[in-house]
Amino acid sequence: MKNSKQILRKLGVYGFDHLELVILASLVSEDPLLLIGKAGTGKTYLLNSISESLNLEHRHYNASFLSFDDLVGFPYPDSDGKEITFLKTPATIWNAESVLIDELSRCKPEVQNKFFSIIHEKKIQGIALENLKYRWAAMNPVQSMNGDLDDSYEGSFSLDQALADRFAFIIEVPDWSNLSKEEQDLVIYPAGEGAISVATIELLQLVSMVRPKFLQQIQKPSNETVAYSRIISTLLGEEGFRISPRRARLLARNFTALFLVASELGYPLDIKSKNQLYKLGLRWSLPQRAWKGNIADHVIDSAHSECIRLVIDNNPSDRWLSEFLMTPSLTSRIEMLLVDNIEKEIKSLAVMQMIKQDSMARVGAFVFAVLPILESNDVINEEALNELTSIAIKIMKVNGEMEWRERINESGSVHPEWAACVHYLGTMKDDNALRKKRAKQFFLYLVCNKASVSEPEFIEKELNECFRCAENYIPSMSE
């Protein structure tokens, strides 16, 4: 968003106008924040200034040489000698409301993990940090992120992925070349060095006003936000950038906070602004930059544009069709077909496209389990139903031969994948005869139709999950 309200400038912090909404959203959500930037770019100055402005009991630790005693104080036994307590000092973490762990990338992963419970759980040594609201960290770029050998950071390690994934926003701090001439002049102004920010009523009021709204809204986030978070996580995953379930949840929290802050500051929330806000929140919510480098802009832009098209620009039927085809779980697709209130023709189109796009094993498992339900509940049209029926007949009445190539001078061999199927069938429990019989029939269908059955256990489990899901809609079905 180009038109910043310049709240951070009032704290004496310059060059962050384009990141202001993101930083304010992190203050509202109180989720962990990580700043990544080169030396001297104002990372610690920004966070220390915010803590002063919010009148927080603040601790600033340098992770590169911090000892554990610096955090907890000196341990000593109580009067009975049965428990260990800690001697608190002004530097210990116990009464802190905000914590900045500086130079986080300059300690090795095993040391980074000592901060894990603080960042993730607001705990240390298993003891809750009752007053702690904000967990912040700052680091230099990891070496893989620097193409310029004259500007590399020796000893700056990438973060452990599990640790990086606990930070909600992961923000790159702008360097000198990224600042406007006006911002450069403001940064140069000598009086700013070492200045203490004056507590601003505006920032305090903003956080205190929006925080309760955030806590209320995350109990029931908007359908749009949930849909965007789900679809963008899938799209980025398809591009090779895994989004964890935790990250998908953090995305929804980040977007919720971002929209609430924007609304409180008077930004318009029309379609164009929503597009910009989602893109802004997405760009600074991706943790990969903390361990492997940035995701290319064109990848983010492409995934975001497709997601906006599906979530905001399309009508509900088109969006449902896209979500159905993007959903990897067959059981989720079954539930979508049988539960969602979507026109029959759209559901029929979804089934027909699924047949064309998915593997024979996945389509077969879907059809094998769900055809009786679709036949009896008038879910899809006659054309789609006939197509599924033809597949089901091929499964139930296998008519074909197993073909494979044998090595020269090798006789009496068996189909290698069928042998793997027989071996797996032999491991199945005898008390589940129907499941075993069903699996054998399905394996025969696949092998005779030259479909890959290299992982029979995975195929059979997915097949069984489909039948279990079907049981929810045909109570009389049982194994």
Describe the protein.
The structure is a single chain. By secondary structure, the protein is an alpha/beta fold. The chain folds into two domains: 299 residues, Rossmann fold, CATH 3.40.50; 143 residues, no CATH class. It is 51% helix and 8% strand. The strands form three sheets. Strands 2-5-8-1-9 form a five-stranded parallel β-sheet, covered by helices on one side. It has a two-stranded antiparallel sheet with strand order 3-4. The chain is elongated, with a radius of gyration of 29 Å. About 1% of the residues have low confidence.
The averaged pLDDT comes out at 86
CATH classification class of the largest domain: Alpha Beta
Q: CATH superfamily membership of the largest domain, which one? A: P-loop containing nucleotide triphosphate hydrolases
Gyration radius from CA atoms, angstroms: 29 Å
CATH architecture of the largest domain: 3-Layer(aba) Sandwich
**Shape, principal axes of CA atoms:** elongated
The percent of residues in helical segments reads: 40-55%
Distance between the termini: 57 Å
Q: Which structural class should the secondary elements be placed in?
A: alpha/beta
- Report strand order across the widest sheet: 2-5-8-1-9
